[in-house]
Amino acid sequence: MNHLAKPLEALAARAGAFVSDQETRVLYVSVDQDLAEAAVEIVVGQEWHPENPRPIFLLAAPYSRKSPGWLERAGALREEYERRQDAFDREAITLPELPPLDESAEPLVTFAFQLKSVADAFSDEELGTKGVIVVLAPESIEGAVHFARELRGLAEAPSLSAVRWIWIQALSDAAEREASTPEALGEAVWRCACHVDAGEAQKEASDLLGGMTTAVASGAGFPAGARPKVAPPPHPDDPPAVPPPADGRPSAHAFLVPFLKAIQCQRDGGPLEAIRLLGEARDLCVASQRPLEAAQMELLAALAIAQAGLQEGAGIAPSVPVFQSAVERAEKAELPGIAATAAMVLGTFANLAKDPELAATSFMRSAALARKAAVPMLEFQALRMAGELGVKGGARERGGERLKDAIGVAAALPPADAQAAGLTDATLDLLAFCKEHGLDALARHAEASLVEEV
After folding, report:
1. What's the CATH fold of domain 206-218+248-453?
2. Does the structural domain 2-196 have CATH classification 1.20.910?
3. What is the per-residue pLDDT for 437?
Protein backbone atom coordinates (compact mmCIF):
# COMPACT_ATOMS: atom_id res chain seq x y z
CA MET A 1 0.00 0.00 0.00
CA ASN A 2 1.21 3.49 -0.85
CA HIS A 3 0.74 4.86 2.65
CA LEU A 4 3.36 2.36 3.85
CA ALA A 5 5.66 2.55 0.84
CA LYS A 6 5.96 6.35 0.67
CA PRO A 7 7.69 6.99 4.01
CA LEU A 8 10.04 4.05 3.50
CA GLU A 9 10.93 5.19 -0.01
CA ALA A 10 11.60 8.69 1.33
CA LEU A 11 13.85 7.21 4.01
CA ALA A 12 15.78 5.17 1.43
CA ALA A 13 16.41 8.33 -0.62
CA ARG A 14 17.44 10.39 2.42
CA ALA A 15 19.71 7.68 3.81
CA GLY A 16 21.30 7.17 0.39
CA ALA A 17 22.02 10.89 0.14
CA PHE A 18 23.48 10.90 3.66
CA VAL A 19 25.95 8.07 3.07
CA SER A 20 27.04 9.78 -0.16
CA ASP A 21 27.56 13.13 1.56
CA GLN A 22 31.04 13.71 3.02
CA GLU A 23 30.27 16.57 5.40
CA THR A 24 27.24 15.99 7.66
CA ARG A 25 28.02 13.87 10.70
CA VAL A 26 24.56 12.87 11.98
CA LEU A 27 21.26 11.74 10.46
CA TYR A 28 18.29 11.57 12.84
CA VAL A 29 15.42 9.32 11.73
CA SER A 30 12.10 9.34 13.58
CA VAL A 31 9.97 6.37 12.57
CA ASP A 32 6.60 4.85 13.44
CA GLN A 33 6.91 1.82 15.71
CA ASP A 34 5.28 -0.38 13.05
CA LEU A 35 7.85 0.69 10.45
CA ALA A 36 10.92 0.52 12.70
CA GLU A 37 12.14 -2.91 11.61
CA ALA A 38 11.82 -2.07 7.92
CA ALA A 39 13.51 1.30 8.50
CA VAL A 40 16.52 -0.35 10.14
CA GLU A 41 16.87 -2.78 7.24
CA ILE A 42 16.73 0.06 4.72
CA VAL A 43 19.34 2.13 6.56
CA VAL A 44 21.74 -0.78 7.15
CA GLY A 45 21.30 -1.76 3.50
CA GLN A 46 22.88 1.56 2.48
CA GLU A 47 26.26 -0.06 3.16
CA TRP A 48 26.00 -1.30 -0.42
CA HIS A 49 25.17 2.13 -1.86
CA PRO A 50 27.59 2.72 -4.77
CA GLU A 51 28.79 6.04 -3.28
CA ASN A 52 29.19 4.86 0.31
CA PRO A 53 32.84 4.34 1.33
CA ARG A 54 32.15 3.23 4.90
CA PRO A 55 31.03 -0.06 6.50
CA ILE A 56 27.92 0.21 8.66
CA PHE A 57 27.74 -1.08 12.23
CA LEU A 58 24.28 -1.56 13.78
CA LEU A 59 24.02 -1.20 17.58
CA ALA A 60 20.64 -1.90 19.17
CA ALA A 61 21.29 -1.95 22.93
CA PRO A 62 18.50 -0.20 24.91
CA TYR A 63 19.17 3.14 26.59
CA SER A 64 18.07 4.69 29.87
CA ARG A 65 19.58 7.21 32.27
CA LYS A 66 20.22 4.47 34.84
CA SER A 67 21.56 1.99 32.29
CA PRO A 68 22.91 3.85 29.23
CA GLY A 69 24.23 0.67 27.62
CA TRP A 70 27.49 2.08 26.24
CA LEU A 71 29.52 -0.87 27.51
CA GLU A 72 27.05 -3.24 25.80
CA ARG A 73 27.44 -1.23 22.58
CA ALA A 74 31.21 -1.49 22.87
CA GLY A 75 30.89 -5.27 23.16
CA ALA A 76 28.53 -5.48 20.19
CA LEU A 77 30.87 -3.27 18.17
CA ARG A 78 33.77 -5.61 18.89
CA GLU A 79 31.72 -8.67 17.90
CA GLU A 80 30.76 -7.13 14.55
CA TYR A 81 34.32 -6.00 13.93
CA GLU A 82 35.63 -9.50 14.63
CA ARG A 83 33.07 -10.93 12.19
CA ARG A 84 34.33 -8.58 9.50
CA GLN A 85 37.91 -9.29 10.50
CA ASP A 86 37.33 -13.00 9.83
CA ALA A 87 35.70 -12.23 6.49
CA PHE A 88 38.65 -10.07 5.40
CA ASP A 89 41.09 -12.71 6.60
CA ARG A 90 39.51 -15.24 4.23
CA GLU A 91 40.39 -12.81 1.43
CA ALA A 92 44.00 -12.56 2.68
CA ILE A 93 43.46 -9.06 4.08
CA THR A 94 44.49 -8.48 7.67
CA LEU A 95 42.66 -6.01 9.88
CA PRO A 96 44.42 -4.88 13.07
CA GLU A 97 43.40 -6.26 16.45
CA LEU A 98 41.34 -4.04 18.73
CA PRO A 99 42.67 -3.02 22.15
CA PRO A 100 41.25 -4.94 25.14
CA LEU A 101 37.87 -3.82 26.45
CA ASP A 102 38.48 -1.73 29.57
CA GLU A 103 35.40 -2.30 31.72
CA SER A 104 36.83 -0.28 34.61
CA ALA A 105 36.73 3.03 32.73
CA GLU A 106 33.72 5.25 32.13
CA PRO A 107 31.45 3.25 29.74
CA LEU A 108 31.04 6.11 27.27
CA VAL A 109 34.81 6.63 27.17
CA THR A 110 35.36 2.89 26.69
CA PHE A 111 32.90 2.87 23.81
CA ALA A 112 34.54 5.91 22.18
CA PHE A 113 38.01 4.36 22.52
CA GLN A 114 36.89 1.10 20.90
CA LEU A 115 35.05 2.97 18.15
CA LYS A 116 38.12 5.07 17.33
CA SER A 117 40.14 1.89 16.85
CA VAL A 118 37.47 0.49 14.52
CA ALA A 119 37.27 3.76 12.55
CA ASP A 120 41.08 3.90 12.24
CA ALA A 121 41.12 0.34 10.90
CA PHE A 122 38.64 1.28 8.17
CA SER A 123 40.34 4.58 7.29
CA ASP A 124 42.46 2.85 4.68
CA GLU A 125 43.08 3.91 1.07
CA GLU A 126 44.03 0.38 0.05
CA LEU A 127 40.67 -0.91 1.32
CA GLY A 128 38.91 2.06 -0.25
CA THR A 129 37.19 2.93 3.03
CA LYS A 130 37.02 6.27 4.82
CA GLY A 131 35.91 5.38 8.34
CA VAL A 132 32.63 3.88 9.53
CA ILE A 133 28.94 4.65 9.96
CA VAL A 134 27.34 3.71 13.26
CA VAL A 135 23.58 3.11 13.27
CA LEU A 136 22.10 3.55 16.75
CA ALA A 137 18.67 1.90 16.93
CA PRO A 138 17.97 1.31 20.64
CA GLU A 139 15.38 -1.39 21.29
CA SER A 140 13.96 0.98 23.89
CA ILE A 141 14.92 4.44 25.04
CA GLU A 142 14.17 6.41 28.19
CA GLY A 143 15.61 9.90 28.23
CA ALA A 144 15.92 10.76 24.53
CA VAL A 145 17.22 14.28 25.21
CA HIS A 146 20.06 12.97 27.37
CA PHE A 147 20.86 10.34 24.73
CA ALA A 148 20.94 13.10 22.10
CA ARG A 149 23.41 15.11 24.17
CA GLU A 150 25.72 12.13 24.53
CA LEU A 151 25.47 11.42 20.81
CA ARG A 152 26.25 15.04 20.01
CA GLY A 153 29.34 14.84 22.19
CA LEU A 154 30.53 11.77 20.32
CA ALA A 155 29.77 13.30 16.92
CA GLU A 156 31.71 16.48 17.75
CA ALA A 157 34.73 14.66 19.21
CA PRO A 158 37.81 15.36 17.01
CA SER A 159 39.15 11.85 17.67
CA LEU A 160 36.00 10.37 16.07
CA SER A 161 36.03 12.52 12.94
CA ALA A 162 36.04 9.37 10.77
CA VAL A 163 32.73 8.23 12.27
CA ARG A 164 29.30 9.21 10.99
CA TRP A 165 26.09 8.51 12.85
CA ILE A 166 22.50 7.53 12.11
CA TRP A 167 20.08 7.49 15.03
CA ILE A 168 16.79 5.67 14.40
CA GLN A 169 14.17 6.46 17.05
CA ALA A 170 10.95 4.44 17.01
CA LEU A 171 7.94 6.45 18.20
CA SER A 172 4.54 5.06 19.08
CA ASP A 173 2.14 7.93 18.32
CA ALA A 174 1.78 11.45 16.95
CA ALA A 175 1.93 13.07 20.38
CA GLU A 176 5.28 11.39 21.06
CA ARG A 177 6.54 12.58 17.67
CA GLU A 178 5.65 16.17 18.52
CA ALA A 179 7.44 16.03 21.86
CA SER A 180 10.49 13.95 21.09
CA THR A 181 12.45 15.63 18.27
CA PRO A 182 15.79 16.00 20.04
CA GLU A 183 16.90 19.60 19.63
CA ALA A 184 19.91 18.65 21.77
CA LEU A 185 21.49 17.15 18.65
CA GLY A 186 22.12 20.66 17.35
CA GLU A 187 21.31 22.28 14.03
CA ALA A 188 23.99 20.69 11.83
CA VAL A 189 22.01 17.46 11.62
CA TRP A 190 20.05 15.89 8.82
CA ARG A 191 16.57 14.76 9.75
CA CYS A 192 14.15 12.31 8.19
CA ALA A 193 10.58 11.67 9.33
CA CYS A 194 9.41 8.17 8.41
CA HIS A 195 5.75 8.24 9.40
CA VAL A 196 2.52 6.99 7.90
CA ASP A 197 0.06 9.65 6.76
CA ALA A 198 -3.04 8.73 8.78
CA GLY A 199 -5.41 10.39 6.32
CA GLU A 200 -3.93 8.55 3.36
CA ALA A 201 -4.03 5.25 5.24
CA GLN A 202 -7.69 5.84 6.08
CA LYS A 203 -8.53 6.61 2.47
CA GLU A 204 -6.71 3.56 1.10
CA ALA A 205 -8.41 1.25 3.59
CA SER A 206 -11.81 2.75 2.79
CA ASP A 207 -11.21 2.34 -0.94
CA LEU A 208 -10.13 -1.27 -0.45
CA LEU A 209 -13.16 -2.14 1.68
CA GLY A 210 -15.44 -0.31 -0.71
CA GLY A 211 -14.02 -2.21 -3.67
CA MET A 212 -14.43 -5.53 -1.91
CA THR A 213 -18.00 -4.69 -0.93
CA THR A 214 -18.86 -3.71 -4.51
CA ALA A 215 -17.28 -6.88 -5.89
CA VAL A 216 -19.31 -9.11 -3.58
CA ALA A 217 -22.55 -7.16 -4.03
CA SER A 218 -22.22 -7.27 -7.84
CA GLY A 219 -21.99 -11.06 -7.81
CA ALA A 220 -18.37 -11.08 -8.94
CA GLY A 221 -17.62 -13.65 -6.28
CA PHE A 222 -15.49 -13.90 -3.20
CA PRO A 223 -12.59 -11.40 -3.44
CA ALA A 224 -9.92 -13.94 -2.51
CA GLY A 225 -7.44 -13.18 -5.29
CA ALA A 226 -6.83 -13.14 -9.03
CA ARG A 227 -8.66 -15.52 -11.29
CA PRO A 228 -8.78 -15.98 -15.09
CA LYS A 229 -11.31 -13.93 -17.03
CA VAL A 230 -12.40 -17.08 -18.87
CA ALA A 231 -12.94 -20.23 -16.82
CA PRO A 232 -10.72 -23.14 -17.85
CA PRO A 233 -12.43 -26.20 -19.35
CA PRO A 234 -13.67 -28.75 -16.80
CA HIS A 235 -11.41 -31.64 -15.87
CA PRO A 236 -12.82 -35.18 -15.54
CA ASP A 237 -11.68 -35.27 -11.90
CA ASP A 238 -13.36 -31.99 -10.96
CA PRO A 239 -16.18 -32.29 -8.42
CA PRO A 240 -19.63 -31.52 -9.74
CA ALA A 241 -20.49 -27.83 -9.83
CA VAL A 242 -22.69 -26.58 -7.01
CA PRO A 243 -25.72 -24.82 -8.47
CA PRO A 244 -27.03 -21.65 -6.82
CA PRO A 245 -29.67 -22.29 -4.14
CA ALA A 246 -33.07 -22.86 -5.75
CA ASP A 247 -35.04 -22.48 -2.53
CA GLY A 248 -34.51 -18.75 -2.08
CA ARG A 249 -31.61 -19.11 0.31
CA PRO A 250 -28.92 -16.40 0.05
CA SER A 251 -25.66 -17.20 -1.71
CA ALA A 252 -22.77 -18.52 0.35
CA HIS A 253 -20.93 -15.19 0.25
CA ALA A 254 -23.90 -12.86 0.76
CA PHE A 255 -22.88 -12.23 4.39
CA LEU A 256 -19.69 -10.49 3.21
CA VAL A 257 -21.58 -7.38 2.12
CA PRO A 258 -22.93 -6.41 5.56
CA PHE A 259 -19.73 -7.70 7.19
CA LEU A 260 -17.50 -5.39 5.12
CA LYS A 261 -19.90 -2.50 5.66
CA ALA A 262 -19.72 -3.16 9.40
CA ILE A 263 -15.93 -2.86 9.29
CA GLN A 264 -16.28 0.50 7.55
CA CYS A 265 -18.77 1.67 10.18
CA GLN A 266 -16.44 0.65 13.02
CA ARG A 267 -13.56 2.54 11.41
CA ASP A 268 -15.75 5.61 10.90
CA GLY A 269 -16.98 5.60 14.50
CA GLY A 270 -20.48 4.19 13.96
CA PRO A 271 -20.70 1.27 16.39
CA LEU A 272 -24.51 1.02 16.47
CA GLU A 273 -24.81 0.61 12.71
CA ALA A 274 -21.87 -1.80 12.76
CA ILE A 275 -23.66 -3.95 15.35
CA ARG A 276 -26.83 -4.01 13.22
CA LEU A 277 -24.84 -5.00 10.14
CA LEU A 278 -23.00 -7.76 11.99
CA GLY A 279 -26.37 -9.14 13.10
CA GLU A 280 -27.52 -9.06 9.49
CA ALA A 281 -24.33 -10.88 8.44
CA ARG A 282 -24.95 -13.53 11.10
CA ASP A 283 -28.52 -14.07 9.89
CA LEU A 284 -27.33 -14.47 6.30
CA CYS A 285 -24.78 -17.05 7.45
CA VAL A 286 -27.50 -18.98 9.24
CA ALA A 287 -29.76 -18.84 6.19
CA SER A 288 -26.96 -20.03 3.87
CA GLN A 289 -25.99 -22.81 6.32
CA ARG A 290 -22.55 -21.47 7.27
CA PRO A 291 -22.36 -22.25 11.02
CA LEU A 292 -18.69 -21.29 11.42
CA GLU A 293 -19.17 -17.84 9.93
CA ALA A 294 -22.46 -17.40 11.82
CA ALA A 295 -20.68 -17.97 15.14
CA GLN A 296 -17.86 -15.63 14.11
CA MET A 297 -20.27 -12.85 13.12
CA GLU A 298 -22.14 -13.23 16.42
CA LEU A 299 -18.88 -13.07 18.36
CA LEU A 300 -17.89 -9.90 16.51
CA ALA A 301 -21.29 -8.38 17.25
CA ALA A 302 -20.89 -9.21 20.94
CA LEU A 303 -17.45 -7.61 20.94
CA ALA A 304 -18.81 -4.44 19.37
CA ILE A 305 -21.67 -4.27 21.89
CA ALA A 306 -19.32 -4.80 24.84
CA GLN A 307 -16.82 -2.21 23.62
CA ALA A 308 -19.56 0.36 23.05
CA GLY A 309 -21.01 -0.31 26.51
CA LEU A 310 -17.66 0.11 28.25
CA GLN A 311 -16.87 3.29 26.31
CA GLU A 312 -20.23 4.81 27.25
CA GLY A 313 -19.99 3.66 30.87
CA ALA A 314 -23.11 1.50 30.51
CA GLY A 315 -21.40 -1.83 31.25
CA ILE A 316 -21.44 -5.04 29.26
CA ALA A 317 -24.87 -6.43 30.24
CA PRO A 318 -26.40 -6.11 26.73
CA SER A 319 -23.49 -8.08 25.24
CA VAL A 320 -23.65 -11.04 27.64
CA PRO A 321 -26.56 -12.91 25.98
CA VAL A 322 -24.96 -12.33 22.57
CA PHE A 323 -21.66 -13.80 23.75
CA GLN A 324 -23.49 -16.76 25.29
CA SER A 325 -25.46 -17.26 22.10
CA ALA A 326 -22.20 -17.32 20.12
CA VAL A 327 -20.79 -19.96 22.48
CA GLU A 328 -23.90 -22.11 22.22
CA ARG A 329 -24.11 -21.71 18.45
CA ALA A 330 -20.50 -22.84 18.05
CA GLU A 331 -21.00 -25.75 20.46
CA LYS A 332 -24.09 -26.89 18.58
CA ALA A 333 -22.13 -26.78 15.32
CA GLU A 334 -19.36 -28.84 16.97
CA LEU A 335 -16.87 -25.96 16.79
CA PRO A 336 -15.37 -26.08 20.31
CA GLY A 337 -12.42 -23.85 19.38
CA ILE A 338 -14.69 -20.95 18.40
CA ALA A 339 -16.88 -21.59 21.43
CA ALA A 340 -13.83 -21.53 23.73
CA THR A 341 -12.66 -18.26 22.21
CA ALA A 342 -16.08 -16.64 22.69
CA ALA A 343 -16.23 -17.78 26.32
CA MET A 344 -12.71 -16.48 26.93
CA VAL A 345 -13.54 -13.07 25.48
CA LEU A 346 -16.70 -12.89 27.57
CA GLY A 347 -14.67 -13.69 30.69
CA THR A 348 -12.17 -10.96 29.84
CA PHE A 349 -14.89 -8.34 29.40
CA ALA A 350 -16.63 -9.50 32.58
CA ASN A 351 -13.35 -9.07 34.43
CA LEU A 352 -13.01 -5.54 33.06
CA ALA A 353 -16.59 -4.81 34.12
CA LYS A 354 -15.83 -6.00 37.70
CA ASP A 355 -18.12 -9.04 37.52
CA PRO A 356 -15.88 -11.77 38.99
CA GLU A 357 -18.60 -14.43 39.12
CA LEU A 358 -19.41 -14.16 35.42
CA ALA A 359 -15.71 -13.90 34.59
CA ALA A 360 -14.79 -17.05 36.54
CA THR A 361 -17.69 -19.03 35.05
CA SER A 362 -16.76 -17.95 31.54
CA PHE A 363 -13.07 -18.75 31.99
CA MET A 364 -13.85 -22.25 33.26
CA ARG A 365 -16.25 -22.87 30.39
CA SER A 366 -13.57 -21.70 27.98
CA ALA A 367 -11.03 -24.07 29.55
CA ALA A 368 -13.38 -27.05 29.16
CA LEU A 369 -14.11 -26.18 25.54
CA ALA A 370 -10.45 -25.58 24.76
CA ARG A 371 -9.64 -29.01 26.17
CA LYS A 372 -12.26 -30.52 23.89
CA ALA A 373 -10.83 -28.61 20.94
CA ALA A 374 -7.26 -29.67 21.85
CA VAL A 375 -5.98 -26.09 22.11
CA PRO A 376 -3.65 -26.26 25.14
CA MET A 377 -2.55 -22.62 25.08
CA LEU A 378 -6.15 -21.41 25.30
CA GLU A 379 -6.94 -23.97 28.01
CA PHE A 380 -3.88 -22.87 29.99
CA GLN A 381 -4.74 -19.18 29.75
CA ALA A 382 -8.39 -19.74 30.69
CA LEU A 383 -7.39 -21.76 33.77
CA ARG A 384 -4.75 -19.20 34.65
CA MET A 385 -7.21 -16.31 34.40
CA ALA A 386 -9.73 -18.18 36.55
CA GLY A 387 -7.03 -19.02 39.08
CA GLU A 388 -5.63 -15.50 39.31
CA LEU A 389 -9.16 -14.15 39.65
CA GLY A 390 -9.79 -16.48 42.59
CA VAL A 391 -6.50 -15.66 44.32
CA LYS A 392 -7.01 -11.92 44.00
CA GLY A 393 -10.66 -12.20 45.03
CA GLY A 394 -9.95 -14.03 48.28
CA ALA A 395 -10.69 -17.59 47.15
CA ARG A 396 -7.03 -18.61 47.36
CA GLU A 397 -7.61 -22.34 47.69
CA ARG A 398 -9.94 -22.58 44.71
CA GLY A 399 -7.79 -20.21 42.70
CA GLY A 400 -4.70 -22.24 43.54
CA GLU A 401 -6.39 -25.38 42.22
CA ARG A 402 -7.06 -23.69 38.92
CA LEU A 403 -3.46 -22.50 38.69
CA LYS A 404 -2.25 -26.02 39.43
CA ASP A 405 -4.48 -27.31 36.64
CA ALA A 406 -2.95 -24.75 34.28
CA ILE A 407 0.56 -25.88 35.18
CA GLY A 408 -0.57 -29.45 34.50
CA VAL A 409 -1.72 -28.50 30.99
CA ALA A 410 1.75 -27.18 30.16
CA ALA A 411 3.54 -30.10 31.84
CA ALA A 412 1.50 -32.66 29.87
CA LEU A 413 2.98 -31.53 26.56
CA PRO A 414 6.37 -32.62 25.21
CA PRO A 415 8.96 -29.88 25.90
CA ALA A 416 9.34 -28.93 22.23
CA ASP A 417 5.56 -28.62 21.79
CA ALA A 418 5.21 -26.56 24.99
CA GLN A 419 7.95 -24.21 23.82
CA ALA A 420 6.43 -23.87 20.35
CA ALA A 421 2.97 -23.15 21.80
CA GLY A 422 4.36 -20.43 24.08
CA LEU A 423 3.49 -22.39 27.21
CA THR A 424 7.00 -22.31 28.62
CA ASP A 425 7.01 -18.50 28.73
CA ALA A 426 3.42 -18.50 30.01
CA THR A 427 4.43 -20.83 32.85
CA LEU A 428 7.27 -18.47 33.76
CA ASP A 429 4.74 -15.64 34.02
CA LEU A 430 2.51 -17.81 36.20
CA LEU A 431 5.53 -18.66 38.38
CA ALA A 432 6.16 -14.95 38.93
CA PHE A 433 2.50 -14.47 39.93
CA CYS A 434 2.72 -17.33 42.44
CA LYS A 435 5.82 -15.89 44.04
CA GLU A 436 4.30 -12.41 44.17
CA HIS A 437 1.21 -13.69 46.00
CA GLY A 438 2.99 -16.05 48.39
CA LEU A 439 1.86 -19.28 46.72
CA ASP A 440 5.12 -21.05 47.55
CA ALA A 441 3.95 -24.62 46.97
CA LEU A 442 2.55 -23.73 43.56
CA ALA A 443 5.71 -21.83 42.71
CA ARG A 444 7.78 -24.93 43.45
CA HIS A 445 5.37 -27.01 41.37
CA ALA A 446 5.75 -24.59 38.43
CA GLU A 447 9.54 -24.59 38.78
CA ALA A 448 9.59 -28.39 38.80
CA SER A 449 7.51 -28.52 35.61
CA LEU A 450 9.88 -26.06 33.92
CA VAL A 451 12.89 -28.17 34.90
CA GLU A 452 11.19 -31.22 33.37
CA GLU A 453 10.61 -29.30 30.16
CA VAL A 454 14.26 -28.33 29.95
Report:
1. 1.25.40
2. no
3. 85
